[in-house]
Design goal:
3 helices, 118 residues, alpha+beta
Length: 118
């Protein structure tokens, strides 16, 4: 089974209150580096996670994690959703990373490939 192009996946989100930011791994790591260097401390707590697997024909998993983020100049609470491809189990690839202020609905997770609706 061939994976759907990730750009086509963006159109499946139904909420219009999203800001789409597409970064290469290098750009994302540079952003993290800057974030850590600009804060005296960063404390991230994760709780309540849901792991979903579409089916046995694909090594892609979805995980939704409750996140509390506190740093020296910012704090927030929300949900992190990751769509991870484990085709190479030694080098899993995060295909999609989404942060939501509220828990994602099951329909949105299903659309991202977490589980078949049938």
């Amino acid at each position: 089974m061939k994976a759907e192009n990730i750009d086509a996946q963006y159109g499946k989100l139904k909420d219009t209150d999203f800001q789409y930011i597409k970064k290469s791994k290098k750009e994302y790591m540079e952003s993290l580096k800057n974030n850590f260097s600009n804060n005296e401390f960063i404390n991230i707590q994760f709780d309540r996670n849901d792991v979903l697997k579409r089916d046995n024909s694909t090594p892609v998993y979805g995980i939704q994690i409750e996140q509390n983020y506190f740093s020296s100049n910012y704090s927030d609470f929300g949900y992190l959703f990751l769509l991870i491809d484990f085709s190479d189990s030694l080098k899993p690839k995060i295909m999609v990373r989404i942060w939501y202020p509220e828990k994602m609905s099951q329909d949105i997770i299903d659309d991202w490939g977490g589980r078949d609706k049938n």
